[in-house]
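Homework-ish question, so no full write-ups if that breaks the rules, but can someone show me the predicted structure for this set?
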Amino acid sequence: MTAPVPDGAFVSGPLALRDAALFTDLYEITMAASYFREGMTGQATFSLFVRVLPGGRAFLIAAGLEDVANYLQTFRFSEEAIAYLRSLGRFEAGFLDFLRGVRFTGHVRAVPEGTALFADEPLLEVTAPIIEAQLVETAVLNFCHLQTLLASKAVRSVMAARGRPVVDFGLRRAHGADAGMKAARSAFLAGAPTSSNVLAGLHYGIPPVGTMAHSFVAAFPREIDAFRAFGQAFPAHTTLLIDTYDTVAGARKAAQVAKEMEARGARLGAVRLDSGDLIALSREVRRVLDEAGLAYVRIFASGGLDEEMVERCVEEGAPIDGFGVGTRMDVSADAPYLDMAYKLVQYAGRHALKTSPGKETWPGEKQVYRLRGSDGRFAEDLLALHDEPPPPGEPEPLLRPVIRDGRLLDPLPALAASRERCAAQVAALPEALRRIKDRGTYPVRYSDRLVALQRAIVDQVTRLEGWAPQPNPFS
Amino acid sequence: MTAPVPDGAFVSGPLALRDAALFTDLYEITMAASYFREGMTGQATFSLFVRVLPGGRAFLIAAGLEDVANYLQTFRFSEEAIAYLRSLGRFEAGFLDFLRGVRFTGHVRAVPEGTALFADEPLLEVTAPIIEAQLVETAVLNFCHLQTLLASKAVRSVMAARGRPVVDFGLRRAHGADAGMKAARSAFLAGAPTSSNVLAGLHYGIPPVGTMAHSFVAAFPREIDAFRAFGQAFPAHTTLLIDTYDTVAGARKAAQVAKEMEARGARLGAVRLDSGDLIALSREVRRVLDEAGLAYVRIFASGGLDEEMVERCVEEGAPIDGFGVGTRMDVSADAPYLDMAYKLVQYAGRHALKTSPGKETWPGEKQVYRLRGSDGRFAEDLLALHDEPPPPGEPEPLLRPVIRDGRLLDPLPALAASRERCAAQVAALPEALRRIKDRGTYPVRYSDRLVALQRAIVDQVTRLEGWAPQPNPFS
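A: Not a homework solution, just the prediction itself:
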């Protein structure tokens, strides 16, 4: 049933965006028009990185590369897009003709999805004729920002749950259709084994889970009628939601239905708590179940959870076997955006940076070298220029060639492989970085050559442009 | 160039979501299977509302109805969707056959997009056979939540700017492709006249704006070369970004280029500040421009802005003529989600509610009546049962029939009309509600019949199910 893809569309799983080359800030196109007019055809390198991590994050999980690769390989202005740009009355005919032929012909070096990263470390670098590299900025940022944001948030609930399953429940309040899909994908990448999102099951192979809502219980004359009906319909996958009216009373009814199911040779799988004091209630519910000889019935908790609440439940020893984490994970509620930027670091062989207060950047094409300690754990990163020799030891260069001359060099890893990489990365982080609260910081060194280069360019810019550092009261 | 829409796809502007009936939490489908098995074919009414407004919001702007209407009218399970559900191994063949024929045949009553709303007031009510009304829950919530969230945030920057234009700049860090489009649409609905998002120009008719980024300046040997090139390329639409290195030095170069443009009969439109102390810098830049006889050159400010910073600029009299508001608006950074719920309020003539602590709901189909004071402003709302007589005065009933028997009764208002409604609604709010800080609260009364009904049902549930109020330590 796959439909033909419209001209100029970007496709990501079940989602297609028509005229995706216009999914951009207008200034990318006005800048391109000026580059075109000036005959600026040199190679530019842009670096995508996060300037400062939000307070609650000790590290990032890089994600979004698959969408970037699909986008770049299919980049083109449709005839409809060209006609629209013409209608704006500000672009010359020659430029519009030129746009019709623009494809992405450049190179991309990137860290694999699932890699742990820190501030200033590039997720990817794009090297291409400046017009191409500029035109793709907005989409590249949008795709990588969302998925890195969500994976970096989801991994915290996974860490907090210490092996108990975390289920992505956030589809309804994720920010739209794309975010709903990417929330499931990012949470899976970060270690959540399942999601409530059925479409994510179809398109990403993430096992979907879910049983009943309060409306189901309320639609029956009595709560126990709802429980009985559900046990009949799903003898092998029954989780009963027991907090519609009173959680402990609901647990007693669930126990009664579980005994009725036993008599039929079926087994109640779990009960779910979705409100109230989950720690205290889980203990009361566990007692009700155990006293009924239902030690096999698991307790699942949800309802406004985030990693701090999950951690509290785990630390206090609440008898909760799994967590449904929803809205707060899928919108990254405590830090709903990253200070991610896509910055020109080199043009036509000349290094570039900006010195805007609070937004200074590092010039030049880069490499991130990761060094491990004798315990096998990550010990230090070195942010260096791409063309300088690697440091001693056996550093892992994190940025790898992904696209050359506009074409993918090798198929990207499957989602399951990226997920394994993410788990291995998290396991190799220093212990203090895996804490939910009072997190440690990770040492990222800047190579001597990089520091010297930045200093030289700042000096040059200061002489040329009259730069003076200014405080930023809003930062 | 419109491509054929795939079977079972949902289309929203440039975005198509294949197999949209699976864009749902699995429990909607498991509940449907149980309703099917039980022969529960009665009419259900679900009410979509926000339980509690976030701290920073005095009111909501309802949005998302257009997507809901498109989704409901095209709702169907594709063959691919049915095959996927079969592969899960938990649904009976008879139910899957039934799903193949499911369409949305119900009714929707809704408030028009752009309407100001308060806690507990329904954005819409869906009345349909319970399986249909249940299956659409997740998507209806996702669509209305996102757009209501973003419109309710954007209107605050518009209010704070007191007539100065607010431009949506947030595409790059909006949560994905759908959110990027809806951020532009929601901001326009809320009063922002333009957006940087070009695709929103093509699909929603929102005028796109934008000029240059720091990368443009950095790609030239000297800042002034970049300014000159841009002035040549866009003599009629030139805004120069002057903070790449040093804002005041940049302003002097912009003034020089403006004089060169004057000599050619062109005019520099504006300069943009994107970092630093915008209030102090705008004053210095204004002085530089005025001293050069460039009183006509406007100053535009951006860079991490939100409504509180916009208000501060305006209140302190900073000479800023327009604001680019980006990330914090497009992710609703201070409140990135709403406590929005879709709750069963009636099934087969029986009223329903839940009594989970902190999540108690109001039963029954409802109407919101809005009463104006003698000054023409909104004075009070009455939340009442749908079938009770309206209160005295000339109340406006906010919920209106939109879909009957699955079909749209009348075309929905164009976006421009919804935008006018929004502006009129905001203008009619009590003054205290339009403050950015120290906001007032709006009186919403609950009708005597509604209160009595809730009490009666709670009594009944308490008798039947053993309800006891519990504190929620997480709420």
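Now go work out the reasoning yourself. Hint: Chain A touches chain B through 145 residues (CB under 8 Å).
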